[in-house]
C-alpha cells in the first residue's frame, strides 16, 4: 500500500488521499446511520400557518428551510465525504487509467464530486424518511434536552440535536421566545410547530 502510494505522482497522491479519506469517512457515516446516530434533519419546516403554536413565527418556513437545507447539506459531513470520495476516486481513475492531464481531470472529477453530493443527499434523505416513517413520534422529543446544532436566528428556524426514541437526530427548531439561540447552547424541547419543527428554550 505504502509502496503503491509512493509510486504515484503529486496529483495522483492528492486524488488518492481525497479518495481514501473520503471513502473511510463515508463508511463511518453509514455505520452511524445504521446505529441510529444519523444526524439527519427530518422534514421541511413549514411554520407559516401554525396558528395553534405559542408565538407567531414570521415567514414561510417551507421555502426558507428548503434553501437553508440545501446549503446545510452541501456543507455537512455527508456532503463533504461524498465529494472527497468521488472527486478522489474519479480523478485517480481519469489520471492513471485514462491518462488525462490535470487540466482536464480536475474539472471533470470536480463535476463528478459535486454531482455525487446531490445524488447521495437525496438517497440519504429518502433512506432517512423510510427509516423514520411511522416509527418516530416527535411528541416524544418534548421535555428532552439537547443542544443547538445550527444557530436559531431571531424569529426564524435553526437546527437542534436531540435524542428522540433512542435516536440522536438533528431537527428543525424555533425559539419559544423568538430570541436568537447560538450554536452549542443547551436547550429543552417545549413543543412542536407544524408537526415537524421543535419549539425550544434555553435550559438551565
Q: How is the topology of this model organized?
A:
Layout: H1 2-6, H2 10-34, E1 41-42, H3 61-75, H4 77-97, H5 102-132, E2 145-150, E3 158-164, E4 167-175, E5 186-193, E6 197-202
Parallel strand pairs: 1-4, 4-6
Antiparallel strand pairs: 2-3, 2-5, 3-4, 5-6
Helix pairs in contact: 2-4, 4-5
Give a written overview of the molecule.
By secondary structure, the protein is α/β, with parallel strands linked by helices. The protein has a single domain, classed as Beta Barrel (OB fold (Dihydrolipoamide Acetyltransferase, E2P)), CATH 2.40.50. It is built from five helices and six strands, in the order ααβαααβββββ. It has a five-stranded mixed barrel. Helix 2 packs antiparallel against helix 4 and helix 4 runs antiparallel to helix 5. The radius of gyration is 20 Å and the shape is elongated.
Strand content: 15-25%
Average pLDDT for all residues: 75
- The CATH topology comes to OB fold (Dihydrolipoamide Acetyltransferase, E2P)
Main beta-sheet strand count, sense and barrel state: 5 strands, mixed, barrel
| Number of alpha- plus pi-helical segments | 5
Estimated radius of gyration: 20 Å
Q: How many β-strands, per DSSP?
A: 6
DSSP helix fraction? 40-55%
Q: Which sequence of SSEs, written as H and E, runs from N to C?
A: HHEHHHEEEEE
Write down the overall geometry: elongated
- Terminal CA distance reads 52 Å
Low-confidence spans: pLDDT under 50, at least 5 residues? 38-75
User: How would you name the CATH homologous superfamily?
Assistant: Nucleic acid-binding proteins
Q: Architecture in CATH?
A: Beta Barrel
Helix/strand-derived class? alpha/beta
Strand order of the largest sheet: 2-3-4-6-5
How many domains, as an integer?
1
CATH class descriptor name: Mainly Beta
Amino acid at each position: 500500500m505504502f509502496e503503491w502510494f509512493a509510486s504515484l505522482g503529486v496529483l495522483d497522491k492528492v486524488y488518492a488521499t481525497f479518495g481514501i479519506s473520503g471513502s473511510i469517512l463515508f463508511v463511518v457515516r453509514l455505520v452511524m446511520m445504521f446505529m441510529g446516530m444519523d444526524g439527519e434533519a427530518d422534514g421541511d419546516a413549514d411554520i407559516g400557518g401554525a396558528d395553534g403554536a405559542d408565538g407567531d413565527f414570521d415567514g414561510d418556513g417551507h421555502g426558507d428551510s428548503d434553501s437553508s437545507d440545501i446549503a446545510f447539506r452541501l456543507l455537512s459531513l455527508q456532503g463533504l465525504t461524498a465529494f472527497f470520495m468521488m472527486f478522489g476516486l474519479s480523478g485517480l481513475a481519469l489520471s492513471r487509467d485514462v491518462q488525462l492531464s490535470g487540466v482536464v481531470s480536475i474539472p471533470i472529477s470536480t463535476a463528478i464530486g459535486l454531482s455525487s453530493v446531490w445524488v447521495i443527499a437525496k438517497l440519504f434523505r429518502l433512506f432517512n424518511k423510510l427509516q423514520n416513517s411511522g416509527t418516530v413520534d416527535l411528541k416524544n422529543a418534548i421535555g428532552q434536552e439537547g443542544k443547538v446544532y445550527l444557530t436559531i436566528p431571531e424569529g426564524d428556524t435553526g437546527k437542534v440535536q436531540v435524542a428522540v426514541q433512542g435516536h440522536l437526530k438533528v431537527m428543525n427548531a424555533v425559539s419559544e421566545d423568538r430570541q436568537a439561540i447560538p450554536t452549542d447552547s443547551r436547550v429543552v424541547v417545549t413543543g412542536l410547530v407544524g408537526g415537524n419543527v421543535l419549539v425550544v428554550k434555553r435550559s438551565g
